[in-house]
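Need 16S rRNA (Cytidine(1402)-2'-O)-methyltransferase's 3D structure for a figure. Predict it.
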Amino acid sequence: MWLLPIIEVCALTAPGPLNSTAGSLFVVATPIGNLDDISARALKVLREAKLIAAEDTRHSLRLLQHFGITTPLAACHEHNEREEGSRFITRLLAGDDVALISDAGTPLISDPGYHLVRQARAAGINVVPVPGACALIAALSAAGLPSDRFIFEGFLPAKAVGRRARLELLKEEPRTLIFYEAPHRILECLQDMELVFGGERLALLARELTKTFETLKGLPLAQLREFVESDSNQQRGECVVLVAGWTAPESEDAVGSEAMRVLDLLLKEMPLKRAAALAAEITGVRKNVLYQVALDKQKGE
Ligand code: SAM
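Structure prediction for 16S rRNA (Cytidine(1402)-2'-O)-methyltransferase:
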């Protein structure tokens, strides 16, 4: 127990030099539904480790039994991780390899493990990722939303006031937004997203990934909210919500001078809607963009 405060202090500084006699801490991803998603390397590491630190030992026991793995398990969850971390560190320092797993997917991703990994690195222990399933990455890989830059926001606050305040902060975020959400809050969450981001913003609900009732539904927020509202099955199971990043409204500058000249000429001769439609046909610029520019112009005059 005396080890813990020292490790906590060390953790505030840079990781210590690697301890060559210590074992390694393997951070092992497990499936998020489909057991076939476990990697051959994950199975080997889990089989060969001296101890497996698991978020819920009873839950993980079923996974290990399925694969015939008999490595002993010890609990490492959000309530004991800080205090019990020293137990795992002691084993690691004694030369034993330890594998860290969570109930599903990649440990530390909205799951316990951060304090243990931090303590291990501060103690100079080799920390090795064994990658695999992760719900946010699986959802993003199939969403068809820009994936070159994205932000993961984890779970939104459970209460509406906090949730809306967080969404307000993200309103003009240009990167694709990714959220985890509990099924009993998915409808409220989509309602608030529609309220804050607007019903037109494209979003995707990725539900029950890798499982029998896997559903990926991409729609503008208003329609996605309607889809979930009208079918209670969509309010069950595990889900990830992705929302397209904010794009600045197209301005006169983006339309180009030639299209503006055509639009200006037509606006002198006919109503706004007709002028925008005709200008779109002549210039190839999208009709709703020209319509918006014409409206803005009118308001400014
Ligand atoms: N560590 C996990 C990972 O790597 O994705 C996430 C754990 S977090 C406690 C659980 C949340 O992840 C769920 O509430 C859900 O938002 C998301 N999730 C996990 N499995 C999922 C699945 N099969 N389909 C959709 N979302 C899933």
